[in-house]
Structures are given as structure tokens and as C-alpha cells.
Amino acid sequence: MKKLSGHPEPHNVGAASMTAAASLFTAASAQEPIKIGAVLSVTGPASFLARPQKRTIEMMVEQINASGGINGRKIELFLYDDGGDANSARTFASRLIDQDKVVAMIGGSTTGTTMSVLPVFEEAEVPFMSMAGALQVVKPVKKWVFKTPHTDTMACEKIFTDLVSRKLLNIALVSGTDGFGKSMRDQCVAVAPKYNIKIVHEESFGPRDSDMTTQLTNVRRKSEVQAIVAPGIGQAPAILARNYKQMDLKTPMYVSHGVASKEFIQLAEGGAENARLPVSALLVGDKLAQNDPQRAPVLAYIKAYEAKHNQPVSGFGGFMHDGFIL
């Protein structure tokens, strides 16, 4: 293009205009919130998993926003309660994508609700950080799906290692029929031969069962049973432990990391005494070595959570803490 005397080159005008527009856009976008979604089972049979998750993410969003946000952008949290229902969870997941336009999702308090929403985020190509324990959440590997809790396979192996050390090789599996309970049961069955563990009896319980004396009576009749392993989440394993105490059973009992909270101990009404379970470092934070890299962040979270909510932390809130930071 020929240059006209007394006028700037057209591309210079365009460059100046685009620079100004970009500056305005950058300034505007810096003020737009970062939209994060969470679908949790705050009510229903898995509520004691989700309540500390809800408190944790709300606390952390509040902390970050109070400190100025992320690069000047506040976090806007869209949080829904699925009540432990897989269909409700999927409905809310679709709402997060289609209406709320979130850039990431943290939630899925249970394996069942996680598996129901997982396809929504895979299809939308939105990162999904799950709080569920089952291996099937991340195996096979999925591009947009992650999880923070240790897997049910890891939990089985930790339990079996302890059983072997105590020479308790004949076990009864009393498993939940929920997604996690079934998955952990399957993983325990799969890895048992590796530890020379023999499963000599099996029983099951539902997430809303209010009494499990029948299952425990059946276990007691099997004289060869040396230990009880109870895969499951929520309130049901606490009822199992309570009935265990009421029946004065002496067979060693193991539960899963799906009950890793003091609420389980309270609900069990003495039945949790001497029960063993695999847990994350959070629940033994003050017992970690001074040079353990987990000690400082664990104690910082404990201090902040207990100061704000005046109640002890649980492993489930810890899973949310790690997922949110990631």
C-alpha cells in the first residue's frame, strides 16, 4: 500500500487499536472470577464424608479470595448437594458445564456419584478431581479425571500386610453394596492370593441398613475366621462396628479408609475400639517426624480447619484440601 503524506500507515493505526483493545480485555478478564464446581453428598448416607469436604473447600475459597484471589481473580464456587444419588449428581454435573461454565470440578464424595458424573467432564474436556476411593475412577487412565484418596487396592494391601504380620490369614469379608464397597471387595479378592490370605466367608450390607447382627452372626458361626475385613463407606460400617460391640465379638476387625473420621468412632459407640484401618498422614499429623515433608502442610490445615469449625478434621476433608490445591 502506498504511503499518503501527512497520514500514519494504516497498519500502525490497527496495531495501536489492537493494543488498546487487548489492554482493556486483559484488565477486564483479570477481574472475572474463576468458576469452580463441586458436587458433594452433603446429605444422605455418605454425609459424614461430604460435610468436611464442603467445609474445607468453602474455607479455602474464602482464604484465597481474602488474600486477593489468583492473579487478581476471585474464585466463584458453585456447590451442589447430590444427597448421595448418582442421577442427581449427573444432573448437577451437566448444570456446572452448561449453565455455570466452570473451568474445573472437585467432588464426587462416593464412587457411585463419581462414576455417574465422570463422562460429563470427559466429554466437556473439563478437569475433574474426584474424592472417591475406587481404583476404577482412574483405571483405565482418563485424560481429564484425577483423584486424591489412595485407591481401594492400596487399602487392601495395607490391611493384608498387617494381617500377615499378625498371622491372621483366614478372613471374612463383610462388604458394602455401594460402589466403593463393591470395588474394594473385588480388589481385596484379587490381591488376597499375593499375601496368602484366604477368604473363607462373605457377607454384605447396604448403605441404609440399620442392623447387621444377622451378617455378624453368620460370621461368628465360621470358626475358621480369624479376622473380619469390612470394605465400605459412610454410616453403615459404624453400625456394623456398633453391632460387633453389642455381640461382644473378639475377632479382630478391619475397616476401610472410607470411614476415616472421628464421627465413625462416635457412631460406632465403642465398637471402633481396637479396629484397624489404613489412613492418610492427616489423621496422625502430630505423630509425624519433624523432618517429614507432610508435617507442615498437614498441621497448617488442621489448625485452620479446627479454628474455623471447632471440630476435628477427617481424612475426607484432607482429600478435598489436596484436590483443591492441585
Q: Which overall shape is indicated by the principal axes computed on the Cα atoms?
A: globular
How many strands appear in the DSSP assignment?
Answer: 9
Q: What's the mean pLDDT score?
A: 90
Order of helices and strands: HEHEHEHEEHEHEHEHEHHH
Cα separation of the termini: 52 Å
Q: What strand line-up does the widest sheet have?
A: 2-1-3-4-5
Could you describe the largest sheet, including whether it forms a barrel? 5 strands, parallel
Q: What ranges have pLDDT less than 50 throughout 5 or more consecutive residues?
A: 1-18
The CATH topology annotation of the largest domain reads as Rossmann fold
Number of helical segments with 4 or more residues: 11
- In the CATH hierarchy, the architecture of the largest domain is 3-Layer(aba) Sandwich
Cα-atom Rg, whole angstroms? 25 Å
Percent helix range? 40-55%
Structural class: alpha/beta
Number of domains: 2
